[in-house]
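Appendix B. Extra example for self-study. Work through it before the problem class; the solution is given directly after the inputs so you can check yourself.
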Amino acid sequence: MDSRPQARQVREKWDLASRFFDWITWADDQRFAPFKYRLFQKVRGKTLLVGAGTGKDFRFLPRDGEIVAIDISPKMLERAALKAQCFPGTIELKEADVCALDFPDESFDTVLSVCTFCSVPDPLQGMREIYRVLRPDGKFYLFEHVRSRIGPLGILLDLLTPLSRRFGPDLNRDTVSAVRNSGFRISREENIYLDIVKWIEAVKR
Amino acid sequence: MKDKENFSSSKRFSPAGFVIGDYIGGIFTGVLVAWAVRLVVSPGVDMVLAMILGMAVGMLLHLGIGFFLAPLLGMFQTMVPGSMIGMYGGMLFAMRDSMGAGSRSLHEALFVGALFGALVVAGFHIYDRVLQGEKENGDG
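Solution. Structure tokens for the complete assembly:
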């Protein structure tokens, strides 16, 4: 599937959202910070951060990290560049579509994705690309919101998705299955908020 | 250099503040939905119609309230309980009002709305605690 026209739409949507992104996610940032501080310390070696956004998550990353942070939105990256200057380690910012990465095979030890696969048009293709650029036994960590498996909550997220999709992410993605279907072995899952916001740990087989 | 030293120590809002905020948000949503439903549903209105109307009014109101509360309390922490209060609260309040049962005065109806909002928020806080303890070990 050619994801380029959809990728352009996604880029335009997040370029627009970059103007108010930090403001609108202030509370999420505060509430999820203890989880991110704890979980993002698992990142090791050369790391690809997928979905850099405005760089709000840089502060949770290990200070000695060697990070390549990508985002589809150049406007988001402009804001991320300011925060990257304050990061004690190395962060290289790059505009890229996760569905068409231009990194060589097996070039990263770890990939971390933060609230990204809710808006990637073809998540399976994106995860296959991540599989390709990870070294064997490399770790793929995801901090993502997904469709709830709790009946009424799942239906609710289905109902709200046509609206949320216009301004931001889909709310009803089955990201856990997508990780599995792209070839990874899931080693651990942790609920962060209900069963909607999740931490997923996967390993390249 | 100072920026780098302070990089991971930016001021954070107290978790207790968010919990109190969740309850205030839930109570506010419950009261507003109860008030709106009382405006549009009178005793004697067909109950099924009233319930659908109440649910629609509740959903619309919760979306409006959520727009303002989400940046302060968190997207999902606002949207999930808010939509339950809006959808199910709106439906239940409309059912009671159409039957002329329960709350006789507006004040009583608003109190029921506030109580419902607080209970839903409490329910989600408890459920979240239970689910946070669940850690799945994956594919083995």
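Self-check: Helices of chain A lie at 4-17, 21-24, 26-39, 74-84, 123-133, 151-167, 175-181. If your reasoning did not lead you there, revisit section 3.
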